[in-house]
Write a structure and sequence with these properties.
This protein folds into two domains: 156 residues, Lyase, Ornithine Decarboxylase, Chain A, domain 1; 256 residues, Alpha-Beta Barrel (TIM Barrel). The chain is 29% helix and 24% strand. It contains twelve helices and 20 strands. Strands 4, 13, 14, 15, 16, 17, 18, 19 and 20 form a nine-stranded mixed beta sheet that branches. An eight-stranded parallel beta barrel has the order 5-6-7-8-9-10-11-12. The longest helix is centred in the first third of the chain and has 17 residues.
Length: 418
């Protein structure tokens, strides 16, 4: 059963009737579901255990959606966090995620961010360059700490995903090559106040074909063995995709399938060759939160230019960027079910041609004031938004398990920007 579907011609998101919410709150807004978020986290976490993975730690990728209330829900479920800035670190800690479950990724950590993370004693710095390691070691020395280091490996694999969200190849800024990882271990001066405790890979996002994931885990295992260091964990990254488009539903890897693949490759390439039993760390973002959110908009007006029918809505690319920057597909569903009669370009008010949520999309005839939902917008939605065109940021709402609606982020008035 899908979490977003029609019942008696009304669009319902995990038991919440959207038209009633849209009557109460001014559009555009994001609506999240505690139920779906919880289900997604538990399916992932339970799946890792069911596949027999050792002491799995799920570190939610905060950048996909750092909303405080959502992170609090995940913290209560036992989630850790994958962070990429001191802002995300503070948000994770504030929401109740303990430092010992936090890994710090990113190629551009500043000295200030590193100092704060050292003070909090996070689980691991996922280091992306040798120069970064030098700085961490230096700062750890100054603060009389021992930094826990994990190298993010560049496994040199090419996943089948959009080129802008692929990260595991030589031309990408992410990760360190095998040779540089192994060479650094010989340089004792890098390790006076740091200790290698893990190795990680993250090859890209919205992965639906798991072959590259398997290859990356093989490379991770081989290089972990070559370090000759008793690592505490192997971090297999995030990136598992969701079915944004109906065509993707057939090929969508199930969590059990993904976990079994991780287990199989670790078994074959690591555990079978050593007595070491490092735990497995995951960094999922999209798979946990994409389907836990929708974006609700109102139609402003129709505009017909010969064969082109533009449906102009009040949400824009500043609120939700994925279609504009990746050409990403997202489902569009009117809040009242009706049969499709027109092919529309669904566009926002922003002065950019790319401010377009869909081209030539079959839709019912809609008029000013009708509500329309952009589906699967819980990940990389609000967190990527901007104030472009001096627009205030939209409202965020949470439908709690007890059906209560909670404002989890007030809309920003444009006046606040003036
Ligand atoms: C973005 C990111 C993730 C999460 O990716 P998803 O596709 O949302 O699962 C995990 N790890 C790192 C290092 C990232 O940069």
């Amino acid at each position: 059963m899908k979490d977003l579907s029609y019942k008696n011609k009304k669009l319902v998101f995990s038991k919440t009737d959207i038209s009633s919410v849209a009557k109460k709150f001014k559009t555009p807004f994001f609506l999240y579901s505690e139920e779906v978020l919880t289900k997604n986290y538990e399916t992932f976490s339970d799946g890792a255990k069911a596949a027999g993975l050792i002491d799995p730690l799920v570190c939610f990728a905060m950048k996909s959606n750092p909303n405080r209330e959502l992170v609090k829900i995940l913290a209560k479920l036992g989630s850790g966090a994958d962070i990429v800035s001191v802002g995300e670190l503070k948000r994770a800690l504030g929401a109740g995620i303990p430092a010992k479950k936090i890994v710090f990724s990113g190629v551009g950590k500043t000295a200030e961010e590193i100092k704060f993370a050292l003070k909090k004693e996070i689980y691991s710095f996922n280091v992306e360059s040798i120069e970064e390691l030098e700085l961490i070691n230096h700062l750890a020395k100054k603060s009389k700490k021992k930094a826990r280091i994990c190298f993010r490996l560049n496994p040199v694999v090419k996943p089948k995903t959009h080129k802008f969200i692929s990260t595991g190849n030589k031309t990408h800024k992410f990760g360190i090559l095998e040779k540089d990882v192994l060479d650094s271990l010989k340089n004792k001066s890098l390790w006076t106040h740091s200790r290698l405790v893990g190795l990680s890979v993250h090859i890209g996002s919205q992965l639906l074909d798991l072959r590259a994931t398997g290859q990356a885990i093989k490379r991770l295992s081989e290089i972990a063995l070559k370090t000759n260091i008793p690592l505490e964990f192997l971090d297999v990254g995030g990136g598992l995709g969701v079915d944004y488009h109906p065509d993707e539903s057939k090929s969508l890897p199930q969590i059990s399938e993904y976990m079994n693949l991780v287990h199989k490759h670790l078994q074959q390439h690591f555990y079978s060759k050593t007595d070491l039993r490092p735990r497995v760390v995951f960094e999922p973002g999209r798979r946990i939160v994409a389907k836990a959110g929708i974006f609700v908009m109102s139609v402003l007006r129709n505009k017909v230019s010969e064969n082109n029918h533009f449906l102009i809505v009040d949400g824009g690319m500043n609120d939700f960027m994925r279609p504009a920057i990746y050409g990403a597909y997202h489902g569009l569903m009117p809040v009242k079910e009706a049969k499709n009669e027109v092919r529309c370009h669904v566009v926002g008010p922003i002065c950019e041609t790319t401010d377009c949520f869909a081209s030539d999309r079959p839709l019912p005839k809609l008029k000013a004031g009708d509500h329309l939902v952009l589906a699967d917008t819980g990940a990389y939605g609000y967190s990527m938004g901007s104030n472009y065109n001096l627009r205030g940021r939209p409202l965020e709402l949470l439908a709690k398990k007890n059906k209560e609606l909670k404002v989890v982020n007030k809309p920003q008035k444009y006046e606040e920007l003036l």
